[in-house]
Design goal:
Layout lengths: L1 H20 L4 E6 L28 E5 L9 H4 L2 H7 L4 E4 L20 H15 L3 E5 L18 H14 L3 E2 L1 H18 L13 H18 L17 H4 L3 E5 L2 E8 L2 E7 L9 E5 L7 H8 L3 E5 L8 H16 L8 E5 L2 H11 L6 E5 L19 H11 L4 H6 L9 H5 L4 E6 L11 H10 L4 E6 L12 H9 L9
Parallel strand pairs: 1-2, 1-3, 3-4, 4-5, 9-10, 9-11, 11-12, 12-13, 13-14
Antiparallel strand pairs: 6-7, 7-8, 8-10
Helix pairs in contact: 4-5, 6-7, 6-10, 10-11
C-alpha cells in the first residue's frame, strides 16, 4: 500500500512538473504608435517595443501590435484594438499621445482634456473585461529644444491626462515622459540627435534610441507591475555594443579604435578598448590630446575607455564645467561608462579636472595631475614666480567673464580653493611634478594643493622629478597606472 501511495505521489509530482514546464507563456500586448512599433529589419527606424522581449524569459511572450501613425482614437476606429483583444493578452501596455496631439482638423487627433481620456478609459475597461492587466505608459518627449536649450514639452498635456486617468482607474503607470525628459535635458540637443533615425527627425528613433527608451520603460515596469518580476531573465540585457554606441569617423590610434565625433558643436574623441573591463572604467583627459600617451595606452590595455572633448578657449571656467557636465551625461547614459572616471590633466588641464571635480565630487574615482596649473594667479596670470602669458591671461578674463584683473585675482574658484568637496568625498590625488618647473612652479601650485588637501584629511601623493622643468610624464608610467588601477578597478565603492 505504501509503495502504491509513493508511486501515486511521484506520478502527481511528475504531472504537475510537466504541466508547469509546458504551460503556455503569458502574453503581453504592446499598443502604441511609430515610437513603439515594429519596422522591417533593413529599416533604420526602430520602436522601443521591438526590444521589450529581451528582458523577459520564455514564460512571457511580448507581441508588439503598435502601428505607425495611430492615435488612441484611430487604433480603435480602424479595428486594431479588436484584433488585439482577440489575442487574449494577460497584460496590455498602452502608449499613445504623439498622433493624438496633431492638428485638430486631422481625424486621428484627440483632445487631451476630453476624448483622449475617454479612449484610455475604454482600453482599461475592455482589457479588464478580458481579465488582462492594463498598464499606461506616458508618451516620451519629442526631442525639440527652445532657444535657451530647455526642452519644449509639447506632449505634456497628454502625459498629464494619462496620469489623471491612471490615478482615477487605479492602473499601473510607467512615466516614460518624465524619464525621457530628464534624459534629453541632461544630454542636450546635440547628443539627443544621436538617438534619431535621421537628421532633423525629433520624434522617431534609431535602434540605439529605441533600445534606450526600452531601458527606461524597464526601469519602472517591474516596480509598477510586481507580478512581472518572476518572468524577468536572471541577467538584464547588456548595454549596447561599442559599434552601436559610437558614431563618427573611425581610425586607428596606437592599435585601438578611435571614434572622432562632434558633441555640442565640439570635437570629441572616444577610444575603445579591445575588451572593456568590468564596470566599464574610463580615463578622461583634459587638454593636450595624445601628448605623453603612455598612461592612456596602458589603461586601454587594461580595458579602460579613453575620452577627450576639445574646449581650449574655456580654460577650466564654469562654461567648461558645463560642457563637461553634458559630455559626462552623454558618456554615462548613452555609452554606459562608469559613473566615476579617472581624471587626467596636464599643465592648464589641471584647471579643467579640478574645477569639474570640485563641482562633481561624487562622480570622480581619482585625479592624476601632471605639472598642473592649480591657480590661474600663477599661470597664466604671472602674479608670482611664473612668467605667465599675457595672451592666455586675456583668455582667462574672457572665459570667466571678469571685467578686470582685480576681479579675477579676487575670485575664489581656483583648484586650490575647491578642495573641501573632494576631501569629503575621499577622492585620492596623484601629482607628478618637475621640481625645476619655471612655467608652473611647484610652490605656487602643487605644494599649495598638497598642504591644503592634507589639512582637510585628503589623500595625496606627489612624485617629484629633481632638476626637471615643465616636462610631463614618467619614463616608466607604472606608478601612475598603478595609482589609477588601485582607485578604480581595485577600489571598493567604484563600480
Amino acid at each position: 500500500m505504501k509503495r502504491i501511495l509513493n508511486l501515486t505521489a511521484a506520478l502527481m509530482a511528475a504531472f504537475l512538473f510537466a504541466a508547469t514546464a509546458h504551460a503556455a507563456p503569458l502574453k503581453v500586448a504592446v499598443l502604441g504608435d511609430s515610437t513603439v512599433s515594429e519596422y522591417p529589419e533593413q529599416s533604420i527606424v526602430r520602436g522601443w517595443g521591438h526590444y521589450l522581449q529581451d528582458w523577459f524569459n520564455d514564460s512571457l511572450q511580448v507581441t508588439n501590435v503598435a502601428l505607425s501613425g495611430r492615435s488612441s482614437k484611430s487604433f480603435i476606429t480602424e479595428g486594431h484594438w479588436e484584433k488585439t483583444k482577440a489575442l487574449k493578452p494577460d497584460f496590455v501596455l498602452i502608449q499613445f499621445g504623439h498622433n493624438d496631439s496633431h492638428a485638430k482638423t486631422e481625424p486621428k487627433a484627440t483632445d487631451a482634456a476630453t476624448d483622449y481620456r475617454d479612449y484610455l478609459r475604454r482600453y482599461i475597461d475592455e482589457a479588464r473585461a478580458l481579465s488582462a492587466q492594463p498598464v499606461l505608459i506616458t508618451p516620451m518627449h519629442r526631442r525639440t529644444f527652445n532657444a535657451d536649450g530647455s526642452l519644449n514639452d509639447i506632449l505634456k498635456p497628454y502625459a498629464d491626462a494619462m496620469k489623471v486617468v491612471a490615478a482615477e482607474k487605479k492602473v499601473p503607470l510607467v512615466d516614460l515622459h518624465t524619464a525621457s525628459g530628464k534624459l534629453f535635458a541632461k544630454l542636450g540637443d546635440q547628443a539627443t540627435a544621436d538617438l534619431s533615425n535621421a537628421p532633423g527627425d525629433r520624434t522617431h528613433f534609431s535602434p540605439k534610441g529605441a533600445r534606450l527608451m526600452a531601458e527606461l520603460v524597464m526601469q519602472e515596469l517591474p516596480q509598477a507591475v510586481p507580478t512581472l518580476k518572476q518572468h524577468l531573465k536572471p541577467v538584464a540585457p547588456t548595454p549596447l555594443t561599442p559599434s552601436e554606441l559610437v558614431v563618427g569617423k573611425i581610425s586607428n590610434w596606437n592599435g585601438y579604435e578611435l571614434h572622432e565625433i562632434e558633441f555640442d558643436k565640439r570635437k570629441a574623441n572616444i577610444i575603445l578598448p579591445k575588451q572593456a573591463a568590468e564596470g566599464r572604467p574610463w580615463i578622461w583627459r583634459a587638454r593636450f590630446w595624445a601628448h605623453r600617451p603612455e598612461v592612456d595606452i596602458a589603461l586601454l590595455g587594461k580595458g579602460f575607455h579613453l575620452v577627450y572633448i576639445d574646449a581650449p578657449e574655456l580654460i577650466g571656467s564654469p562654461a567648461a564645467v558645463e560642457v563637461w557636465n553634458k559630455f559626462y551625461a552623454y558618456l554615462t547614459t548613452i555609452h554606459h561608462l562608469n559613473a566615476k572616471p579617472a581624471l587626467e590633466g596636464m599643465s592648464r588641464g589641471g584647471l579643467y579636472i579640478y574645477n569639474w571635480a570640485s563641482a562633481n565630487p561624487d562622480k570622480v574615482a581619482c585625479i592624476y595631475a601632471d605639472a598642473p596649473v592649480c591657480t590661474f594667479h600663477s599661470w597664466p596670470g604671472g602674479k608670482g614666480k611664473a612668467k605667465g602669458s599675457v595672451k592666455d591671461w586675456e583668455l582667462v578674463l574672457k572665459a570667466y567673464g571678469f571685467k578686470d584683473d582685480a576681479e579675477a585675482l579676487a575670485w575664489k574658484g581656483n583648484p586650490i580653493d575647491g578642495l573641501a568637496p573632494l576631501a569629503k568625498a575621499k577622492v585620492p590625488l596623484l601629482h607628478v611634478v618637475g621640481d625645476a618647473d619655471e612655467v608652473v612652479p611647484v610652490e605656487e601650485n602643487t605644494a599649495i594643493i598638497e598642504e591644503r588637501y592634507k589639512a582637510l584629511g585628503g589623500s595625496i601623493q606627489v612624485i617629484h622629478k629633481p632638476g626637471i622643468g615643465h616636462v610631463h610624464g614618467l619614463d616608466d608610467p607604472e606608478p601612475i597606472v598603478d595609482f589609477i588601477l588601485a582607485n578604480t578597478l581595485q577600489r571598493k565603492g567604484v563600480k
